[in-house]
Specification:
The protein has about 450 residues and is an alpha+beta fold. Strands 17, 18, 19, 20, 21, 22, 23, 24 and 25 form a nine-stranded antiparallel β-sheet that branches. The chain has a six-stranded antiparallel β-barrel with strand order 4-5-11-8-7-12. Strands 14-13-15-16 form a four-stranded parallel β-sheet, with helices on both faces. The N terminus is likely disordered. The chain has four domains: about 90 residues, P-loop containing nucleotide triphosphate hydrolases (Rossmann fold, 3-Layer(aba) Sandwich), CATH 3.40.50; about 90 residues, Translation factors (Elongation Factor Tu (Ef-tu), domain 3); about 100 residues, Rossmann fold (3-Layer(aba) Sandwich), CATH 3.40.50.10050; about 100 residues, Beta Barrel (Elongation Factor Tu (Ef-tu), domain 3), CATH 2.40.30.10.
């Protein structure tokens, strides 16, 4: 939406899929909006899809104290289809109404501030960021700090691809002139004093570096309790990743999706993430840390492919996030130790008991599956287990055999068990190793 006046939409717009319902990320966004004390407008998208149920979404939101206006509440909720364009105009109209009711006005006669919507690295033009101006007016030549990134605006391009010299509240523009790529969601502000802006950017960069180091240390911190837990569950394994994407928004989406994967036994450690090409520096870091380089919709800088081949670094390139997540999940499952499980072979019934010297042999009829020599059996008597161990001897008529299939009779002998009774039920099984999944 483009508002032509001085009004600015300082509103939290939540987009919820009608066929999916309220996700944890939505609940987190609601908490942030309430903490910021901004009004909330809900767009219930994908009403055109099979299985869409807007009423269920509204019910789930009402349980989070967001009661729709149609149900007597004060939260605006608009069912729509972004694919077909249904009710988009209604959503924009409701945003304007809410902004008028809440008296959300901006002052175009002050220095600009707002939010970074998107950012990426262009090989020819350098770092490019898309900014939403929420207050004030942004002009070419302004010195801005976006997050921890400093820059002087060299050019601005509006949503129609035209160069502009100024952008007022509620406009979104692409800017050139930053010294690095900011993160999507970072707030920006214009400073009249370049020296002050530089000091603020440097202090934020230092704080960001300290935070990153603390996170890295905490992810590797070992305590007696963690050692005990790892001893019980098996050693905690790590999958090191370096993630580069076409734009910062793609990187943030990937990082958010990776956090949703179970990491009880295999932990994902993102050593470096950002927008731009995969460079030789990324390859060197991956070689030193045993990491896999993930490139999403981005290119490889000259020399990085050759460096990866020399260092034996695996560079994976993707353009579909679901395929990326599937392969990462598969790699994590490959690090899990296999699970030993019981696999049923068959079932037999004892129909006669024969004495052979000091031992006893059970004359059996195989009811299903098969029984196999040197595998395991479980002897059940009236539903209770009386023996569990190895099947030592298996005979068919007078011959020793390896296995007997269903529908045939056989003799079963066990060295450590002789107390057979007619009617005993024998369950034959074996222990096999099975690859584990993260869900298991």
């Amino acid at each position: 939406m483009r508002a032509r006046g001085t009004k600015v939409t300082d509103i939290a717009i939540l987009v919820v899929a009608a066929d999916d319902g309220v996700r944890p990320q939505t609940k987190e966004a609601i908490s942030h909006a309430r903490a910021a004390k901004v009004p909330i407008v809900v767009a219930i998208n994908k009403i055109d899809k099979a299985g869409a149920n807007p009423d269920r979404v509204m019910q789930e939101l009402s349980e989070l104290e967001l009661l729709p206006e149609d149900w007597g509440g004060d939260t605006v909720m608009v069912p729509l289809s972004a694919l077909n364009g249904d009710n988009i105009d209604t959503l924009l109209e409701m945003i304007v109404i809410v902004s008028e009711v809440e008296e959300l006005f901006a002052n175009p006669n002050r220095t600009a501030k707002g939010t970074v919507i998107e950012a990426h690295l262009d090989r020819a033009r350098g770092p490019i960021a898309t900014l939403l101006i929420q207050n004030g007016t942004l002009r070419v030549g302004d010195v801005i700090v976006a997050g921890s990134v400093l820059g002087r605006i060299r050019a601005m391009i509006d949503d129609r691809g035209e160069k502009v010299d100024a952008a007022s509240p509620s406009f979104a523009v692409e800017i050139l002139g930053l010294n690095d790529i900011p993160h999507a969601g970072d707030e920006f502000e214009v400073y009249l004093n370049e020296k002050e802006a530089k000091a603020i950017a440097e202090s934020r960069t230092e704080a960001k570096r300290d935070t990153r180091l603390q996170q890295a240390m905490s992810s590797r911190r070992v305590t007696l309790s963690s050692l005990s837990a790892q001893a019980e569950q098996g050693e905690l394994k790590e999958l090191n990743l370096i993630i580069k994407g076409d734009v910062q928004g793609s990187v943030e989406a990937i990082l958010g999706s990776l956090k949703q994967l179970p990491q009880n036994e295999v932990q994902i450690r993102v050593l470096l993430s950002g927008a731009g090409e995969v460079t030789e520096t990324d390859v060197d870091l991956a070689a030193a840390s045993g990491a896999v380089v993930i490139g999403f919709n981005t290119n490889l800088a000259p020399g990085s492919r050759q460096a990866a081949e020399q260092e034996g670094v695996d560079i994976r390139e993707y353009n579909v996030i679901y395929k990326l997540l599937d392969e990462i999940e598969g790699a994590m499952e490959g690090l899990l130790d296999p699970e030993e499980i019981e696999e049923s072979l068959g079932q037999a019934e004892v129909r006669a008991v024969f004495s052979v010297g000091k031992n006893a042999v059970a004359g059996c009829y195989v009811q299903s599956g098969k029984v196999v020599r040197n595998r395991f059996i479980r002897v059940l008597r009236k539903g209770k287990e009386v023996y569990n161990g190895n099947l030592d001897s298996l005979r068919r008529v007078k011959d020793d055999v390896k296995e007997v299939a269903s529908g045939f009779e056989c003799g079963i002998g066990v060295n450590k068990f002789n107390n057979w009774e007619e009617g005993d039920l024998i369950e034959a099984y074996e222990m096999v190793f099975k690859r584990r999944t993260l869900s298991s």
